[in-house]
Amino acid sequence: MAMKKLSEDLIRQLKEKFFIDLKKVDSFESLEALKILYLGRKGEIRKLFHQLKDIDDIDERKRYGEILNSIVVEIEEILEKEFKRFKKDKEEYSFSLLEMSLPSANFQIGKIHPLQKVYNEIIEIFSYLGFDIQEGPEIEFEDYNFTMLNIPDDHPARDMQDTLYLNLPKTDKGKILLRTHTSPVQIRLMLSKKPPIKSIMPGRVFRNENLDATHSFNFHQVEGLVVDKNIKLSDLKGTLIYFVRLMFYEDIVCKFRQSYFPFTEPSLELDIQCLVCKGSGCSVCKYSGFVEILGCGMVHPQVLYNVGLGYEEYTGFAFGLGVERVTMLKYRIDNMRLFYENDLRFIKQF
Ligand code: PHE
Fold this sequence. Notes:
BirA Bifunctional Protein, domain 2; 12 helices; 41% helix; alpha+beta; binds phenylalanine; seven-stranded mixed beta sheet; two-stranded antiparallel ribbon
């Protein structure tokens, strides 16, 4: 297409067109496109520069050259300003999403959950006593949870009311269930390792219970197991008395009471003096002055036999304590539900 001859008119028209185009610019990107359209190597102004050679008069050519140069400078300045504006807009836009100067929206600092705190403390005390930490699965075989622990088939603990069975095919180790206590980890441990064993096994357990002030369908236990030659009942008592003294306070009054568990013989329960009334009797201890904190006993010979450790060479003791229970006593919390609601007003008190 033939070019119109270079004239002041043509230059004025180009300038007007530039300003019209500039008005249409609405983004950083369209501004860049405009720059290329006018100042680029094949841009509008370059085209006019090319026409300079058709002007014969040397002074005339020089004059037009100067005019075109001044237009380049002028357009460059305008574009420069516009670029700055868009850049600022761009930054402002990204800042509007993250406005650093605004006060933060009611930001709450978390705290370690009281259960976790007590859990850690229990682990710390037993680690100090030389126990190592073992874990087992929450989904367990019936054999490990019951049978090998000497809990016979007709034991009430196996009742559907207590145990949550999974709807899975039966295995050669019995039905599959959610463990009702951490004691199956004892079995796993003794099957996998020769004594000496000195371990605690913390973890979550499940029972088919309704949630109320003192019950939950899932709670936490810390199991303990010591198996070696010459382990005696006095070792059990010494260990657990040491534990309650560190966990609660030095001169705490506690007593071992005879009890029954299928997997220990003899079986005991450890009671500590009620921390609420200091033994004088209140509703927490049901006016007995004492509260139960754990079950324990010497590992039943049948259990040792079941895991292939024989009756003679080894003896051991075991215990199982409820983390919720210890926490409730330690901090005088009277409702278990508070542990699971995650209300910061509660959690922040510890
Ligand atoms: N497993 C028992 C329970 O859940 C507690 C326990 C553990 C008792 C180890 C004795 C020995 O009630």
